Amino acid sequence: MRAPGIRIASGPAPMVAVPRLELPAHGTGWQDRPPGGDQPLAARRRRRRRRPARTAWPIAALLLGYPVWWALGLGGLSVVVLAAPMAAVLWRRRPIRAPKGFGLWALLLTGYLVSALALAETPDGTYGELAAGRVIGYLMRLAVYVSLLIMVLYLGNLTHDELPQRTLVRWLGVLFLTAVAGGLLGVLAPGFAFTSPMEMVLPPSIGGHPFVANLIHPTAAQMQHVLGHAAPRPEAPFEWANAWGSDVSVLVIWFVVGWWAYGGPYRRVAAVLVLAVAAVPVVYSLNRGLWIGLGVSAAYLVIRGGRPLVAAAAAALAAAVFLLSPLSGIVAQRLDNPHSNGIRAFTVATTVRVATSSPVIGYGNTRTAYGSHRTVTTGRSAWCVECGHPPLGSDGQLWLLLISQGFAGALLYAAFFAGAVRRYWADRSPIGKAGTLVMIIVLLYMVVYDGLISALTLFLISFALLWRNAAVTTDLGEAR
After folding, report:
1. Which residues pair with 233 in a beta bridge?
2. Where exactly are the transmembrane stretches of this chain (predicted)?
C-alpha cells in the first residue's frame, strides 16, 4: 500500500532508512511538532516573534536610541547614518521587493537630482549668489531623501519574524514617550541647551549655517514672541518647535495603537495617564497645526474607530476636562494672537510667484526674497539677522517642494501619499486605520510644516507599516 503524498519512481528503489514517526499521546497531530521539538510549531513561532532578529537593529537604534542621537547632535540625521547598514542588508537580500506606488518616490528623487542644475540661478525678487551654504543644504536634503528610500525598502524586506508589526508600533510608542519627556523639559527648563559632539567637530563654516545649526545643537525649547511676549515652545528631542508638533501628532497615533488597541488593562491605564501628562507640552507648544492635527485624528477615530459612540463619548469627556483646566486659557490666548499669519502669507505668495519661473525642476534649494510682509525695503543681512523673514519654502513641505523642485515635485509628493490613502483605505486593522490616518495628516501638514527631517522619517515608517500589513494579507490570501 502506498503512503499518501509519496511518489514511487519506476525501477529498483534504493534502500532508505526511514525514521520512525512517534504520534503524541495528547490530542495534537504530529505535524504540529517539529522533529526533536517538545512544543507545537505555532507556540514556538509565537515565542520566537516576541524578540526581533538582529537584522532589525538599525530600526531599534533609530527609534529607541533617538535621545542618544539627539545628544550627539545627530537626531534628525541619524537615519542618514543608519542607512549604510540598512543598505548592506538589502544588498545581501537581492532581489529587493518594492511597494506599489514607490515609483513616484523614485521620480521625486530623480527630479531633485535634476534640480541641482538650477542651484546657481537667482530668480527675480530674490538675492544671494551660489555659496557653500546653498550647496550644503542641497546635499543634506539629498542624503535624507536617499536614506529614507533605503529605510522604507529595508523595512519592507524584513520578514515579520525578524521584525513583528506590533514590535515596530511599540518602538514608535517609546519614541512618543521620549517626545513627551522632551516637551516637559522644554516647558520646565526652556533654557536647557548644550554643545553636541557633532557641533564640536564641524567647522564653523558648516556648523554655523542656520539649517545645520538647528540639526546639531540640542535645545529644549525655542523662545518666540507668538503671544506678544517671549514664550518657550518645546522642541526636544527634534529639530525645532514645529517639528516637535508634527512628530508628536504622528507618534501619538502609534502610541494609542500599541498601548490601547494592542494593550492589556494595565497598559491601557498607563496610556491614559501618559496622554494626560502629554497634554501639558502639547498646549504649551502653542502649535496650532498640532492642535488641528489632533482634532482631525479625533474625528477620524469617531468615524472609523469601530465603536463611534464610545469614541465620541471619550472625545467629549477629554474636551470637557480640558476646557475646565487652566490649559484652555493658553489656547485661547494663542488663537487671539495669530503672530505668524502675515509672515506666512508673504512667504507663501512669494514662493508661488518665484516657482512659476521654473515650474518643472525648481531651483534646487530655498531662496531669500527682498523685503518682508511689512515693507519691500527690509531684508535679512549680516548686520541684521533678525530682519526680513524665513527663507522661501520654509513654511511647509509643499512650499519647499515648489521652490526646490517646481510644481512637478510637489505633485509627485502629494500623489505618493494620496495614492497610499486610496490603496490602503480598505485595511480595517488597527495598523491599517492608523497608517491611513497618518497619510491623511501628511497631506494636511504639507501646507504648514516642513517635513524634513524627523517628520518625513515618521511619515515613511508609517507608510512601511501599511505596506507590511498589506503583505501579510496578501500572503494569507495566497495560502488559502
Report:
1. 222
2. 68-90, 102-120, 135-156, 168-194, 243-262, 269-284, 313-332, 398-425, 437-467
Name the pTM for this structure.
Answer: 0.82
CA distance 339 to 337: 5
Range of the domain at 106: 53-183+238-473
Looking at residue 43, its pLDDT comes to 46
pLDDT of residue 384: 52
Instruction: State the virtual CA torsion across 240, 246, 252, 258 in degrees, nearest 10.
Output: -100
**HEC profile of the chain:** CCCCCCCCCCCCCCCCCCCCCCCCCCCCCHHHCCCCCCCCHHHHHHHHHCCCCHHHHHHHHHHCCHHHHHHHCCCCCHHHHHHHHHHHHHHHCCCCCCCCCHHHHHHHHHHHHHHHHHCCCCCCCEECCCCHHHHHHHHHHHHHHHHHHHHHHHHHHCCCCCCCHHHHHHHHHHHHHHHHHHHHHHHHCCCCECCCHHHHHCCHHHHCCHHHHHHHCCECEEEECCCCCCEEEECCCCCCHHHHHHHHHHHHHHHHHHHHHCCCHHHHHHHHHHHHHHHHHHHHCCCHHHHHHHHHHHHHHHHHCCCHHHHHHHHHHHHHHHHCCCHHHHHHHHHCCCCCHHHHHHHHHHHHHHHCCCCCCCCCCCEEECCCCCCCCCCCECCECCCCCCCECCCCHHHHHHHHHHHHHHHHHHHHHHHHHHHHCCCCCHHHHHHHHHHHHHHHHCCCCCCCCHHHHHHHHHHHHHHHHHHHHHHHHHHC
Strand partners for 223: 232
| Regions of the chain with pLDDT less than 50 | 1-39, 41-49, 373-377, 476-480
- Domain count within the chain: 1
The three cell numbers of residue 353 are 510667484
Rounded CA-CA distance 214/191 in Å is 15
Question: Is residue 222 included in any domain, yes or no?
Answer: no
Model pLDDT, residue 420: 96
Contact between 158 and 401 (Cβ < 8 Å) = no
Domain annotation covers residue 467: yes
Question: Does a structural domain hold residue 42?
Answer: no
pLDDT number for residue 457: 96
Would 16 be classed as within a structural domain? Answer: no
How far apart CA 374 and CA 389 sit, in angstroms, is: 10
Q: What is the pLDDT of residue 71?
A: 94
Per-residue confidence (pLDDT) for residue 144, from 0 to 100 = 93
pLDDT at 31: 32
Query: From CA 113, how far away is CA 109, in angstroms rounded?
Result: 6
Task: Report phi then psi at 452, rounded to 5.
Answer: -80, 135
Handedness of CA 238, 243, 248, 253 (dihedral sign): negative
